[in-house]
Amino acid sequence: MKTSKRGMKLIKQFEGCRLTAYKCPAGVWTIGYGHTVGVKKHMKITQAQAESYLKQDLKIYEKHVMKFHKRYKWNQNQFDALVSFAYNIGSIYNLTGNGTRTKKEISRKILAYNKANGKTLEGLTRRRKAEKKLFDKPVKKS
What we know:
It contains seven helices and four strands, in the order H-E-E-H-H-H-H-H-E-E-H. The protein is mainly alpha-helical. The chain has a single domain, classed as Lysozyme (Orthogonal Bundle), CATH 1.10.530.40.
């Protein structure tokens, strides 16, 4: 599976795009749409580089989510929501209880991941609500 346009839009909406390196609320140097690998203070990139980093990073998090596809048979909305979650958090291992939770339990747990360094952040709360809403949305059959 691949992240849909809806999933990309969700990630872009919450990550935002900054072409100059900055420290995120967790204190990590970040650039583009939340890209962190190799980012240094004062680093600058172009919009095209930001898009390229996003596509590279998505592949990593799509693989994380696909590790659990055999167990859960994600639909596209669930997949997109979880890729957004993993893109922000790093993985879905804890969220899924390493594959032991039901989809219903996973849906309920999404909202709990709204803190950075122990502090509840409004931006993370909004993101988790949007991810949960997408996760719970049925996929229309064509």
